[in-house]
Amino acid sequence: MIDRILVPMDDSDHAERALEYALENFPDADVTVVHVVGAPSMMMGEAASLALADDFEAAAAERAEGVFERARALATDRGREVDTVVGVGHPARNIIDRSEGYDTVVIGAHGADRGRATRRFLVGNVAETVSKRAPVSVVLVR
């Protein structure tokens, strides 16, 4: 039985469809939406990272709140509620580590398109990595 579902969300249509899928197909499960933001690069040096930390934190919180507002609206439209949490760091790694407390992950097949070819070359596809490495079942939603 699936009691707890983790749904990673960014601002993509695929992420919204993943949340809709989770809400509609698992009506009795508790759903947690996670939005993962990358940390300022430590390669820039500690001083530069510290100088950017406040600006980064404010921008990340604003972006996450926009994602969470949309998630709550989708849930409310279906008579449901969702919990929300912000993760910081590498998206796939954060989702995989966090998934251990859940029965399944429901994730959009593709995230927001921000130079997909370059991003895939550098860090890989988040959904693909999560589906291969998560310790729980993963549902990919197109």
TrEMBL record:
Q: What Gene3D superfamilies does the record point to?
A: HUPs (3.40.50.620)
According to its UniProt record, which protein family does this protein belong to? Belongs to the universal stress protein A family.
Write down the Pfam families for this protein, in alphabetical order.
Answer: Usp
What protein name is recorded for this chain?
Answer: Universal stress protein
Every copy of the UspA domain together lies at: 1-142
